[in-house]
């Protein structure tokens, strides 16, 4: 376990080594939150509530969804693709650790870094500019914490899956991009799932994506009752377990037919 | 059984895809693709004892790296058996790799953006090395490789030679009984090469570390290895002592003479008529070269005869270099 914790620390150091990325990140996220805030205020107009959500809940939803994204989002699929393409995966395989586990830890290191140096200060700044609503109920915060950790795992697992496909496709830049758009849309980052047409909501219930953004954001804005929140968190947990299966299967096949590119 | 490596009938085949020509061909490639099965490593067997230093040589594409990758558990063999350190490398990968060290000359295993010591620290945790072990062993490694001043620099700021020394140290953090070096001296200057060679010799003596080395620089092999395994087109074409390789394929000795007086080839042939010697003349510099069998008595006799009759300015005895021998073998095959 020691080595995995050490990896989180190393990733932390690597994030610090690239400070410019960090500053531009803050800028991009603020622009996104601002744009969606004004878009939604325009849509709401004079109305008090749409689909049971008030304007304030909506702006809180937008802000928290983006700030949560900073935590669960990572580029390990792209990193894996690069490592496989350049043959660096050979070096990873001569180390006594689980490659996928190590990648997850790198993602976590990145996530924790952004949570403390990005999401939390970002949220404070955003709350000065836009009217947001924070829950005073500590159960909401606990639900939110559990839920966001699970959304990290679901998102990371989907990234691992996309990354492993590089072993078979050799060039999957397109797939990685498509995955990103699909997640942004179907996870409820851009539009809450409850705004989708009913049939689409039914379909999305059977997909893991809403566990990534919709669930933690709804919990944070108190749009879920306690019961709904618990159910949603259980669903997230089930998805984390289900996703282990395709990852392991693909990983075993990938290792068997692995070709190290470039000598 | 104290063999570090046992390889029996090892084979690795790759599918080599070929593209059809033209636009029509490109569309057909979308559906079905042509491929050939190419053996990269074809039925090789060898053994390496604990504490041996073995040079693994061959032309580009002969299958050296593929073998190393199978021995380190990265690639799965198509058929055949590999036992390294008493384990099957790809089956017990995680347990197995903590008993080996690997240096790939062309790939870095240090983390690019962070200081060298942070990489070391992570590797120390990864290999579960205790503090005492680390301090006693690594202090020595760091001193010998002279990398103390580099430890707090990020890897991307190191020169190739500096980085290579750090790579070597990183591969030795857990003091493995078996070390694989895949072209460790590629692109390095003479001083760094010497330092690395000396260091390898030292750890081999001190810890009885087995070392398997692939390189295109034969002086590395000459300096380090008593045994060489030579590979060509996926097959082993020679496995034995470096010395007997020289004796077997070395093409005698060359003795170069320069004379103070005018000499013709006829004179020389007359003088040495009794022994089996072939003379050649380099017109430009008036150097006469005698080709003789590698036999000490014959050569001393030859020199004595020449010196007795003619005034000599310079004599130079040359042995066929390993490089030439190996070039000959590659060119002509082993037959």
UniProtKB/TrEMBL annotation, chain A:
Record field: transmembrane: 21-40, 52-72, 112-134, 140-169, 181-200, 233-254
Q: Which Pfam families match?
A: ABC2_membrane_6
Q: State if Metal-binding is listed as a keyword.
A: no
Source superkingdom? Bacteria
**Keyword list, A-Z:** Membrane, Transmembrane, Transmembrane helix
- What's the name of the protein? ABC transporter permease
Q: Which organism is it from?
A: Cytobacillus firmus DS1
Automatic annotation (TrEMBL), chain B:
Q: Does the keyword ATP-binding apply?
A: yes
Single annotated GO MF: ATP binding
Q: Which residues form the ABC transporter domain?
A: 25-258
> Does this entry carry the keyword 4Fe-4S?
no
UniProt entry keywords in alphabetical sequence: ATP-binding, Nucleotide-binding, Transport
Name of protein = Sulfate-transporting ATPase
Q: Which organism is it from?
A: Cytobacillus firmus DS1
In the record, what lineage is assigned to the organism producing the protein? Answer: Bacteria, Bacillati, Bacillota, Bacilli, Bacillales
